[in-house]
Amino acid sequence: MKVTVDDSRCCGSGQCVLLAPEVFDQREDDATVVLLDATPPDGMHAAVRDAAAMCPGEVITVDEA
């Protein structure tokens, strides 16, 4: 799994951080998403998929290859 984010479209809702805090964080100044781990371990894949699905700005892309 490879994860990318388009932080220019992030609305700062924080759903990604709540669902996968090992993979996502937020900047303190504007709450924009910060990608902590672009290749998360297998045990995090379901949470990352959920975070991508729940993102209101649709800024998280998950490549399963």
What's the shape?
A: globular
As for the CATH topology, it is Alpha-Beta Plaits
Number of domains: 1
Can you name the CATH architecture? 2-Layer Sandwich
Total of helices: 2
Question: What is the share of helical residues?
Answer: 10-25%
The whole-number mean of residue pLDDT values reads 97
Q: Compute the separation of the termini in Å.
A: 6 Å
Return Rg in Å: 10 Å
Oligomer: single chain
**Low-pLDDT stretches:** none
Structural category: alpha+beta
What does this structure look like?
There is one protein chain. This protein has 65 residues and is of the alpha+beta class. The chain has one domain: Alpha-Beta Plaits, CATH 3.30.70. Helix content is 23%, strand content 22%. A hairpin with a 6-residue loop joins β2 and β3. The longest helix has 10 residues. It starts with a strand and ends with a strand.
How would you summarize what this structure contains?
This protein has a single domain (2-63), classed as Alpha-Beta Plaits (2-Layer Sandwich), CATH 3.30.70.20.
Give the helices and strands, then pairings.
Layout: E1 2-5, H1 15-19, E2 24-26, E3 33-35, H2 45-54, E4 60-63
Antiparallel strand pairs: 1-4, 2-3
Notable features of this structure?
65 residues, alpha+beta, Alpha-Beta Plaits, two-stranded antiparallel sheet, 22% strand, globular
